[in-house]
Amino acid sequence: MFMSLISHVLSAWFAFLLPCFATWKSLNHLPHSEPELKRWAMYWSIVGTFVAFEYIAEWFISWLPFYWEVKTLFLLYLSLPQTQGSTYIYQTYLHPFLAKNEASLDAGIAAMQSNALAFIQAKLTDLFNYIARSAGAAGQQNAAGAPPGSAPNPAAWQSTAASLWNTYGASVINSLNPGAAAAAATGTPNATTPNQRSYPTTPNNARKSSASSTPSKEYFGSSTAVPNPPFPTPQHFQQ
User: Fold this and answer.
1) What pTM does this model have?
2) Following DSSP, what letter does each residue of the chain receive, concatenated?
3) Which of 6, 10, 34, 202 sits a CA distance of 20 to 30 A from 106?
């Protein structure tokens, strides 16, 4: 445990933080620092390969004796400017291998990406089809099991769609009609809506009292009072 902690601290400082700062300095002082930038590009290529291998095989080999000590020494060998082990490994092993197999590696990567995309699309399509079939079967079962004269229960996807519409439908409509959204926000009527009619907001008592009088001009748009029609006289009162 103690050696693992020491290894992590030394590796973080010498193998990652200092090379990261040196790479930034090389990028910041271009074009005078192109040789240093090239050296650090080789370094990160080797470190990336080592980290990828470590992610896969560490749980196989981490129980070996002196694993942390050997790992720390190897990272120091790669990163220290006195040794420049990353430059040697890159020029001796990695660069010849990649130059020889560049075309096949590109073709394999492209094939893997296309196959992975096709696999994901096929599985998502199967999943959506299964959900649709399950929803349709549930709706048919609910309709078949319902008593005569009762409305069938909607399928699960229909209920979900209805709840989504009830939640977000008004917002969608308001976003499509900016005038209605602004009117709803300010509390004023929408001027762009045709054939919109405003009615007086009078109390209930006033409405009841005005029901027996002449109609208001607010309803008919005219100041002329219309008389009430005469009430017919019953026949037994006629002489």
Assistant:
1) 0.53
2) -HHHHHHHHHIIIIIIIHHHHHHHHHHHTTTTTHHHHHHHHHHHHHHHHHHHHHHHHHHHHTTSTTHHHHHHHHHHHHH-TTT-HHHHHIIIIIHHHHHHSHHHHHHHHHHHHHHHHHHHHHHHHHHHHHHHHHHHHHHHHHHHHSPTTSPPPPPHHHHHHHHHHHHHHHHHHHHH-HHHHHHHHHTPPPTTSTT--------HHHHHHHHSSPPPHHHHS--PPPPPPPPPPPGGG--
3) 34
